[in-house]
Amino acid sequence: MESPLLENNEDEKQLSYHVKRFGHESKNLWQLAGPTILTCICNYSLGALTQTFVGLVADLHLAAFSVENSVIAGLAYGLLLGMGSALETLCGQAYGAGQIRMLGVYMQRSWVILITTAILLLPLYIWSPPILKLMGQTTQISNAAGKFALWMIPQLFAYAMNFPIQKFLQAQGKVLVMLWVSAGVLVLHVCFSWLLILKLGWGLAGAAIILNTSWWLIVILQLFYIFITKSDGAWNGFTWLAFADLFGFVKLSLASAVMLCLEFWYLMILIAIVGRLENPLIPVDAMSICMNINGWEAMIAIGFNAAISVRVSNELGAGDFNAAKFSVLVVSITSVSIGVLAMIVVLSTKDYFPYLFTTSVEVANEATKLAALLGVTVLLNSLQPVLSGVAIGAGWQSLVAYINVGCYYVVGLPAGIILGFTLRFGAEGIWSGMIAGIVLQTIILIVVTSITNWKKEAEQAESRVRKWGGSTSHDQ
Question: Percentage of the chain surpassing pLDDT 90?
Fold first, then answer.
């Protein structure tokens, strides 16, 4: 029989091992998530800062820019980002399996699909005035936003090029390249926005020139890096293989798009529904303030979404299913801890943060009332995107798309409408109902992740790499 002292030593060794392992995995995650979060903030700031400069010129310019950026470009952004996310599964698993050469082929296939999608989206830009009028915008704003949308068509194709490039670099852990490019472009963007929009008085035309140029500059600089360095063998030049097996690629891309768009649009719909309330001005302004704060906090979640997607896909591709499982545990604990901290900050500053965005006491008071719901939302949004990232890394996009439809649009949306309009709880009722959808989706994803056979997932990853990239490293 072992002595208690030996048992204690063994327990201490086990604890020390798990702490070191947690610390090592946490370091891996932060090396991916940190630069990705900052890159997201830089890219998000391109539109946000341009909007600020445009708002200093004229109210109509501000309205036109806001409508085009949130409705027309927002729709295209969500769809193309979703389709590009298929690369997170394929590039990540191929990289983990040692099939580095296939990353460049996958990126080119994604370019073919996303550029084709961008061409199909052109009618949305060309005929945006009547579309916006149907959505309830005034003729004046619709015409101004429609004219601006035509000028922003180059940005649409920059999105189609950029998202595959980003997933290609993320899968290899080359996130610092993305950060330096985005940060450098942002500095130039601010300087030239001031010059063209304010100093030279070019207004919306200046905004279009600088925004299109900035997005294409990001694409070109990233491509220069890839072409010059060959990305450690991941880039071997253009190839006709980009057009091979496009059907399977389109299928996964569409599943990724549906999955992410259903999430991306869900809280955007919230403001539109609140706008249907009686006397909607104050609740819409208050909700916009809360969504603004939620949007900035979401940049952290997006960073962890990308990081866990890369970690899971890399480890499954390498056949190390235990490492993939452990990575999910570490990122869940980390992101929930950040979510709890964010919720505490929101609740403790609920009487103050509204005044950062408004001088209206009525709007500030309404935002304060909504602060509890905002706190719950930022907590849920710390874990839910991470679980979505696990799904992307493992290739579960189709399953999660079905889950999202059921939880968000069959349960959450109707619950919000009933609470807000039928039971007359107003904006708080609408948001509460929609939070119920997020809660249900998060619970289901926790259950799915918990009961997952990770060994089987690793085998499926190997099969996927075989199908689209030849033999895995285990055979070499």
Answer: 31
| C-alpha angle 209-300-170 in degrees, rounded to nearest 5 | 70
Which of 174, 319, 178 lies closest to 233, judged by CA? 174
The pLDDT tens digits for 157-180 are: 999 999 999 999 988 889 999 999
Assign 3-class secondary structure to the chain: CCCHHHHHHHHHHHHHHHHHHHHHHHHHHHHHHHHHHHHHHHHHHHHHHHHHHHHCCCHHHHHHHHHHHHHHHHHHHHHHHHHHCHHHHHHHHHHHCCCCHHHHHHHHHHHHHHHHHHHHHHHHHHCHHHHHHHCCCCHHHHHHHHHHHHHCHHHHHHHHHHHHHHHHHHHCCCHHHHHHHHHHHHHHHHHHHHHHHHHCCCHHHHHHHHHHHHHHHHHHHHHHHHHHHHHHHCCCCCCHHHHCCHHHHHHHHHHHHHHHHHHHHHHHHHHHHHCCCCCCHHHHHHHHHHHHHHHHHHHHHHHHHHHHHHHHHHHHHCCCHHHHHHHHHHHHHHHHHHHHHHHHHHHHCCCCHHHHCCCCHHHHHHHHHCHHHHHHHHHHHHHHHHHHHHHHHHCCHHHHHHHHHHHHHHHHHHHHHHHHHHCCCHHHHHHHHHHHHHHHHHHHHHHHHHCCCHHHHHHHHHHHHHHHHCCCHHHC
- Considering only residues 120 and 467, tell me which one the structure prediction assigns the higher pLDDT: 120
List C-alpha distances in Å: 186 to 30, 173, 233, 292, 466.
23, 22, 29, 20, 40
pLDDT at 470 over 50: no
For the segment 65-93, the average pLDDT, to the nearest whole number, is 82
The closest alpha carbon to 183, from 30, 32, 40, 29, belongs to 40
How many angstroms separate the CA atoms of 73 and 77, rounded? 6
pLDDT per position as a tens digit, 101-114: 888 988 999 999 99
CB 270 within 8 A of CB 434: yes
CB 310, CB 92: distance < 8 Å: yes
Give the residue among 322, 388, 324 at the shortest CA–CA distance from 28.
324
Q: What is the mean pLDDT of residues 231-259?
A: 81
Whether 221 has a pLDDT exceeding 90, the answer reads: yes
Maximum C-alpha span of the chain: 86
Other beta carbons within 10 angstroms of residue 475's beta carbon come to 10
- pTM for this entry: 0.82
